[in-house]
Amino acid sequence: MTNPLLAQFVAEAADLLAEVDEGLLRLERDPADVDLVNAVFRAAHTFKGSSGLFDLPELTRLTHAAEDLLDAVRSGALPLDAEMVDGLLAAFDAVRAWIPVIEATGSAPASAAATGEAIARRLRTALGDDAGGSSPVTVTVAATPVAPTVLAPWVLDLGEETLRGLLPWLEATGASIRALDYRPDDGCFFRGEDPLHLVRQVPALEVLEVRAPDDLPAVTEFDEYESVLRFTALTRAAMQEVQYVFRYVPNQVEVVEVTAAALARLLDGGDEAEAPTEAEAPEEHRVLVGLLAAQRRVLAAGVPTPASVTAAVRVALRAASALGLSVTSPAEGAGPEAVLAWVDALVAAAGSPVVPAQRTAPVDEQDAGAERSADGPVGEPATEDATAGSRILKIEQSKVDRLLDLVGELVVAKNSLPFVAAAAEEEGHRVLARRIKDEYAVVSRVSEELQQAVMDVRMLPVSTAFARAPRLVRDLSRKLGKRVRLVQEGEETAADKDVIEMLAEPLVHLVRNSLDHGIEPPEERVAAGKPEEATLLLRAVPDGDAVLVEVADDGRGIDVERVRRKAYERGIVEESALESMSDAQIAELIFAPGFSTADQVSDVSGRGVGMDAVRSAIERLGGTVTTDSRPGQGLTIRLRLPLTMAVSRVLLITAGGQRFGVPIDDVVETVRTPWSSVTRVAGREVLVLRDEIVPLAPLAGLLDLPAADRGDEVSVLVVRTATGPLGVVVDRFHQNTDVILKPLDGLLAGTPGYCGTALLGDGLVLLVLDVKELNNRAAAAR
Amino acid sequence: MSDQDTSRPRALVVDDAPTVRLYHGEILRSAGFDVDEAGNGFEALELALATAYDLLVVDVNMPQMDGYELLTRLRSDEVALTCPVVTISTEADEPDADNAYRAGANLYLVKPVAPDLLEHVAGVLTSSLPAPWSAS
Q1: Which of B63, B65, B94 is closest, CB to CB, to A387?
Q2: Across chain A, what does the average pLDDT equal?
Q3: Keywords on this record (chain B) (predicted)?
Q4: Could you tell me if A628 lies within 8 Å of chain B, comparing CB atoms?
């Protein structure tokens, strides 16, 4: 896409669409919220205004219809109902579908006119417009400029034969065609302009003539960097389209309407032809007279302030001198009445009646507001908008990521200082070692703050991930015939952009699942003594260096018996195992791959991929999923997500003579205890910790490393897993450290058991263990 | 006025829609103006108080502070700004134009404004003044 204006529009459109969608859904819930109506109206209004700059009549027409409907709602003439919201959503959905096509081609898809027309009619019907069918929507089209009766002689440059061939067609159809004369500036190449390319952008070109001057200078004097070409062309494109192509060089191009009559006159009698500058003159004259008339209105309106009077007088002076009138300034310090009389005299001298032009913009006459009621609230000062007024700097994400990478490296580099201090101490430089440690504390603090500051840049509110929920709930609940109220809490809770972005998809699954399986149909709810309307709560709460996201409904909860049966039917768990499982464990089975309780696969959910996918997505993010099912009362699914993914804290351990890292998020506690406290249950070594049985598994064994000799004490790293705590027996514990976790790549990519590598401060590459896989291996070994 | 590069005229384009801002800004830039942009009335007020503009091109319907309010403040006795102001609105109604003129606009145009019209108007509005008005 080469057109920067269009690129800007596409970007703006995305913002506006998001704003409209969110606003409409909130509005449906709270139709009386004046601020919301205003916000949505403004977005539609801006859309219409911006789309008017392009040749997108379908878009302008549709957004205009939406704007009118919203205006009626805003002025209190119409109460907003679900029907209207449906129509408005459909309108902006259509626009959303057009944008990529507009981005690629510069115009709306071929089907847009019909689609847009149908939706616009729907909106108009809601508005109570009678003439729904015949598209009463006035479109922002450039006015048909009055076709000159006398054509400029350069039109003849297009070739008399061509023009004569055109004449019968023009006469037969009564149509007109546009002729353009483009004389690129001598130095245009130095401004990066490409005249030939530009003129070829004119749509529906019929004839293009490129001419060099007859009197080209001799080769020795010829400046090949200077443009001497002149382009004349005929096009069937509308005036506005042509003007749009040349919008950056409007003074180098002249476009005229060619009608049959004018063309015939030009071809038959050249004597009537006028110079092109004169043909243009009346237009400029009108603008100047319009300017004078406008100043008259300033002076005549109420009580103009002295600054207004001065400004108006100056403009009038300029317009008058541009008109070539002999100008005498009004007396210094003259009152508004005297100045008004003076302007009246100027207007009269300009040879035009003192009728303030209805519009002073003759070139872009349009009927955009023709049917807007005269008492439309446009003139009211806009109410305070919810949009934050703070200054925003938009930065490419790659730049922030680069910064973050550097900060991460700094954090790691600073971690080498304690090693240096230890080395210094070993060599007997205790004072130096102390100083290094002190410096380390300072660098550590500053780099942590720096890291935090950069992280903050990447933080996005959870509302970004919640954004799709309102629409989803609305559409699904209608489709399923359920009544659901969506409540969102803590949307402002922020987390890293990567986390937020990857959260959106799982949230959709969860919301779907809740509506499809959790929430009962209204009659069933009433029978159960619950309110007919169900409540779905989306809540985000900050929790230390994590964020908790809850999806809670007041539906039927997890039907444990049904899950048990399904799990058996689908062969997910063996019958014998099922019997020994607790209800909570059974409930967890909804996350098992291939599990689905829906009796028939609906198009909403029920393909048995949802919850499994949710869990793996969240775990990929370094988060966890837990459920809290209250049978008959509802289900809460709790996602615990790290605030950021960039820098991870790991616990260093040694096992089998090698150092490893374990993500600190997975660590519950570290225990050193005599071997004598280890007991056996069913032949397996376990540790009883605060009345909880923790199965033990030696890390060396899980990783096929040589086992170290058993000392008197055992070091147990207790980690959190999906099946409960696991005690991993290691040789030694070391300190916690911050690392940048990098995924295994190259030959090592996909090696099971490790979630990545990290560079330590002393230059050692650390393998970071994947606790989930360790747990699988421990389970398999039993 | 276009050939004097010593003192290029300076314009402020005010519109909440970035696309429209770019459009008006580019027309003025190609007409030889130095152009600043503001996204709402507050920003515009701040800029207009700090910089001597030769021309203001102001949208009417904007969040936080609309064009009328901005103009009323600029033309008030406290600020007493006398530079020419063109308002550009999507509304083609007379009451809207009346409001703009009452607030002190020197011209009310309806979107979309043809590039040559804006360029022409901008040229006239920033042309040199006959004495003694040019002095004040």
Answers
A1: B63
A2: 78
A3: Phosphoprotein
A4: no
Q: Please give, rounded to a whole number of angstroms, the shortest distance from the CA of B108 to a CA of chain A.
A: 7
Q: Residue A329 and residue B130: Cα distance in Å, rounded?
A: 9
Find the length of chain B. 136
- CB-CB under 8 Å, B121 with A291: yes
Contact A236/B at CB under 8 A: no
ipTM: 0.89
Say if the Cβ atoms of B61 and A378 lie within 8 Å: yes
Task: Convert the pLDDT of each residue in B2-34 to its tens digit.
Answer: 444 457 899 999 998 888 999 999 999 988 999
- pLDDT confidence tier of residue B132, bands split at 50, 70 and 90: low
Cβ neighbors of A165 (< 8 A, separation 6 or more) are none
Q: Tell me, what's the pLDDT at A378?
A: 36
Whether residues B98 and A315 touch (CB distance < 8 A) is answered with no
Residue B64 backbone class (left: φ over 0; alpha: ψ -120 to 50; beta: rest): left
CB neighbour list of residue A169: distance below 8 Å, 6 or more residues apart:
A175
Domains of chain B: 10-125 (3.40.50.2300)
**CB-CB under 8 Å, B106 with A295:** yes
The alpha-helical segments, DSSP class H, found in A81-209 are: 82-105, 112-127, 160-173, 195-200
| Cis amide linkage into residue B132, ω under 30° from 0 | yes
Strands A484-489 and A534-543: what pairing?
parallel
The two tokens of residue A719 are: 């980690």
Residue among A16, A46, A246 with most chain B CBs within 10 A, to mutate: A46
Neighboring chain A residues of B60 at a CB cutoff of 8 Å = 378
